[in-house]
Amino acid sequence: MKKRHLLAPGPTPVLPEALLAMARPILYHRGPEYEALLGRVREGLQFLFQTKNEVLVFTSSGTGGMEGAVVNTLSPGDRALVIRSGKFGERWGEICEAYGLQPSYIDVDWGRAVEPDTVAAALAADPSIKAVFATHTESSTGVLHDIETIARIVKKTPAILVVDAIMSLGVANLPMDAWGVDVVVGGSQKALMIPPGLAFCGVSDKAWVMVQRSRLPKFYFNFTAERKSLEKNQNSFTPAVSLVVALEQSLAAIKAEGLTALFARHDRLARATRAGVRALGLELFTERPTPALTAITAPPGIEAGAIVKRLRAAHGITISGGQAQLKGKIFRLAHLGYADESDVVVCLAALERTLIDLGYSLKLGEGVRAVQEVLAQAG
Ligand SMILES: *Cc1c(COP(=O)(O)O)cnc(C)c1O
User: What's the CATH code of the domain at 237?
Assistant: First the structure.
């Protein structure tokens, strides 16, 4: 018998209360029970996004929310600026290009965070830019970008700031109203502790003005129509009812924990993981790590994929390797959502044994000890 541990950067383990709620008989999505539920979910999402505005809910993976953000804010010929520092930043560019836009790019070395000054310079060089597309946690490299500073820069221009926060919503602070972030995109299968299948878009007043003028084609991901439906506690089309039911549970759990405690928990798990990894003599892939996951450079002579494979086969632990140009070079341990101390202890313990099996020299317990030392500290 082997216990299985899902420690990949999404999907993540599902909250038990959400699993139970999903097992109940399905609700009719045009009935009073569902409408009351959606009312509670709308409030919970505003709490999580830290916004007074409506947070739109779509039945799709997170990328649907990203596509929605592009097609609802821009028009043919509009100038856009895309920050590319990994797989998900690239995705913003791919979506823009799929709709015929020709964005300018800020290309950042994978593993590094964008310098906010670069964004300021790009906006100053082209005042016609209508939207800046950024990523909060770039999951492919484990970097947390400085959205607060970037928002301060973009706020002073006519452009809107659109942020892919799919990996960091509920992990790291991103108060959209206070920082002035215009569109925040989230997804259900990361820190929200429910299965894949829902995308969320928080939209600022500044962005709504652009939504009203936007002329790119859209049908399913129509922000204006969806907001109108939500205001009546309805969805425009049949929603993933079971996931919305699960979402209510996860939002209640998040509210009960409180945002400050929620962010502190993730920060603590991330610090413990990084300490453990360093104690084993391994190198972190980035100097600006996200609290959502830890990206680690595979030691010389060991292919990252071999670590991933052996962790799963020998210890029942699922983590992720590198994507695209980082394939074989890094591996990624996630510690977000329904994750606590025991998860990072188990993960580091199994990582030690795995590395030994693959010929890396270390003393058993060195990593776990460093993890424990961080966890033993107050706070
Ligand atoms: C998971 C993730 C996505 C969404 O991917 P989907 O497969 O469409 O849900 C987008 N951006 C980031 C940063 C992610 O981590």
Answer: 3.40.640.10
The number of the ligand 1 atom at minimal distance from the alpha carbon of 138 is: 13
Contact 107, 82 (CB under 8 A): no
Domain endpoint, select from 257, 277, 297: 257
Pick out the chain residues at pLDDT < 70: 379
Domain membership flag for residue 132 = yes
117 within a domain of the structure (yes/no): yes
Ligand 1 pocket test, candidate residues 166, 323, 332, 336, most atoms within 8 A of CB:
166
Q: Which neighbouring-strand residues pair with 137?
A: 144
pLDDT single digits (tens) 338-356? 999 999 999 999 999 999 9
Closest CA to 151 of 127, 124, 122, 183: 183
What are the pLDDT digits (tens) for 254-307? 999 999 999 999 999 999 999 999 999 999 999 999 999 999 999 999 999 999
The whole-chain average pLDDT of the chain stands at: 98
User: Ligand 1 centre from 353 Cα, in Å?
Assistant: 31
Query: How many domains in the chain?
Result: 2
75 is in which domain, residue-wise?
A: 16-257
The reply to whether the predicted model has a pTM over 0.90 is yes
Q: Tell me how crowded residue 32 is: count the other CB atoms within 10 A of its CB.
A: 10
Domain boundary among the residues 241, 257, 273 is at: 257
pLDDT of residue 378: 77
Residue of 88, 243, 320 to mutate, ligand 1, most atoms within 8 A of C-beta: 88
Are the beta carbons of 305 and 292 closer than 8 angstroms?
no
CATH number of residue 318's parent domain: 3.90.1150.10
Structure tokens at 180: 């002035």
